[in-house]
Amino acid sequence: MSSPIRVGITHGDINGIGYEVVLKAVCDEHIPELFTPVFYGSPQIVEKARREFNLELLPIHIVKNQGDIRDGKLNIVEIDVTHNDVEPGIPTEKSGLAAVKALELACDALENGEIQVLVTAPISKKAVQSEEFKFPGHTEYLQERLGKGAHALMVLFNDILKVALVTTHLPLSKVPQAITRQRVLDQIRSFEKVLKSDFTCERPKIAVLSLNPHCGDEGLLGTEEKNEIIPAIEDAKKEGILAFGPYSADGFFSTDAYRNFDGILAMYHDQGLAPFKALAGDTGVNFTGGLPFIRTSPDHGTAYDLAWKDKADPVSMRQAIYKAIDLYRNRMNHQRAASNPLRKARTERGADKTVDLTKEEID
């Protein structure tokens, strides 16, 4: 590409580990060769973090207006909070408002083409709640704001494992009623598209987990498998999707069966995320698939217990940034290939040679 990809990064909750992991992830002098960081945060808090964590940052450029982003620098789009507003380890109304403002400005930039991808630092789901923001998390907000009719899909991944969810931030008591044939089928379809366009899987194999222990034991432990999940898998197969299951989650992850599939579809949040985080360690990345734009985040939360103590590990944030760039390039390549597919040459029945196409047919 002629210029580095511009990566928008929101500061998340100022009282968590967002500033520490973001700035540690982008303080390498070689960063400008890879991408241009555009940080939605407070210059004062950046300076506070630089001093407290002893960081050597790139030259800082404060973005004053649209189009003012500069390559080779740490661009900061200013959010109206200061170092005096930082209360380490405590979610506050001010930290919530600042997190939402950064997210809104970053989404504006995505829509205006000022940045190509978005990486979000962790927020407090409690602190961000207000009359204007009533979303349980980033995924739901981005679906509403950027979805444009698309189907958002929460995907946790690293180099060996990709886990998507049928339900996301939903109380466990409400999960069974949300597991419907149509919803499971929609998530299988969406996951297949994401695996093809963003992960370069030409014919992805998808494992679908059960909801109940032992896949419901033929209805003894629950009927969701028989009535909803299995019919959805059969519907997907009729559409040519390589969907298999349902598999009992405990045996599936403990026997390394996950290595035989390109993606795993879990029924609810902890069913997929608990084993994923145990297997992925610090390498996991959260990706909102199915949207017109690439958005990733580290697979950890605000970690208030570590906030502003110089103890937070930036590995997952660094992975989120680099993987966002990879996903963006994969999608661009996929879109280019899909927009100009090669026409298949016709062959005569019983003949070994391909029938020559005329110049007009080729054109």
Fold and architecture overview:
This protein has twelve helices and twelve strands. It is α/β, with parallel strands linked by helices. Strand 11 and strand 12 (294-298) form a beta hairpin. Helix 1 packs across helix 11, helix 7 (181-199) crosses helix 8 (224-238) and helix 7 (181-199) packs across helix 11 (315-339). The longest helix has 25 residues, at 315-339. 45% of the residues are buried.
Give me the secondary-structure category.
alpha/beta
Backbone CA Rg: 23 Å
Task: Give the overall pLDDT as a whole number.
Answer: 90
Distance between the termini: 28 Å
Strand order of the largest sheet: 3-4-2-1-5-12-11-6-7-10-8-9
β-sheet strand percentage: 15-25%
Helix content: 25-40%
Give the H and E element order: EHHEHEEHEHEEHHEHEHEHEEHH
Uncertain stretches of 5 or more adjacent residues: 347-363
Please give the largest β-sheet.
12 strands, mixed
Identify the overall geometry: globular
Number of strands: 12
Helical segment count: 12
Summarize the structure.
This protein is an alpha/beta fold and 363 residues long. It has twelve helices and twelve strands.
How are the secondary structure elements laid out?
Blueprint: E1 5-10, H1 18-25, H2 31-34, E2 35-41, H3 43-52, E3 60-62, E4 74-78, H4 93-112, E5 117-120, H5 138-146, E6 153-157, E7 162-165, H6 175-178, H7 181-199, E8 205-209, H8 224-238, E9 242-247, H9 249-254, E10 263-266, H10 269-280, E11 285-289, E12 294-298, H11 315-339, H12 359-362
Parallel strand pairs: 1-2, 1-5, 2-4, 3-4, 5-12, 7-10, 8-9, 8-10
Antiparallel strand pairs: 6-7, 6-11, 11-12
Helix pairs in contact: 1-11, 7-8, 7-11
